[in-house]
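Entry 14. Ran structure prediction on the chain below.
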Amino acid sequence: MRKYVVTFIVAVLIVGGAIFAWDRNRTPAAEGEVVQKTPALAQQNSSQGQQKGSSDINGASSAKNNSSSTASTGAKTASGAPTNSSKTSGKTDFVNTYDVEHVVANPESMQVLVNKTYRLPAGYIPPDLVYPNVPFTFSEKIEKRKMRRDAAVALEKLFAGAKKDGVSLAGVSGYRSESRQITLYNNYVKRDGVKAADTYSARPGHSEHQTGLTIDVSGSTGKCAAESCFAGTKEAKWLDKHAHEYGFIIRYPEGKDSITGYKYEPWHLRFVGTKIAAEVKSRSITLEQYFGNAVPVSK
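Output, structure tokens:
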């Protein structure tokens, strides 16, 4: 009997020691886990509606929002713009909503992405606004006649190219300050309500016009300026065919409102440079699809 008791005690000690050693050497599941924030402009699984993909990247350091960390989604060029490795196929839907907001890290970049998710720093004013030497639908030298220097030079070439093809263009609205956007947006909300206003007007800080890289154009007569009827004009058709040759894209193309967040605007030109413009045009994608999730954001 004593023999069996001793054997039992030894067995208990061996098993207990093994369990103790295993417990000391294992790493708890909670330790070492990294919980990343939901991407601001995340790829969507169309069948399940679940977010997936990587988080945003910061142009200078790791971006943080609400104390959550982000991870890099691809290499960037020296200017802070993502390289080709971060681009999407152009077939993906995106989250583009005011419910998730980030401040862009490179507001002065010619490739800056500004939409409902990504906004400019409060009170941002472009550093090199000039008056492009092109006709406008008005004669006053006011704010909305301005554009950033590189965009203005490109616009002059675009207007000249159109004229050679027998198409006369006129500027309607270029740069727009944040204070001006506040007034415009609030007026639209009073007239049509927030839901409707958000389909055609940007909230303050989220307007591409504030970058100084965007301009609305029309024919020289101003007929159908910033109106849906502009789509059927020879001016709109020329812009759709040739704008990319001068570094501009139709920023809110037809059938892409679920991605851009805005209705079709054939008059809304955005300067991005000839390289990006050519690819956006050839692939029939939006700027959101071109950059994918790799958008530099600030803290």
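Residues 2-25 form the longest helix (24 residues). Will compare against last week's run tomorrow.
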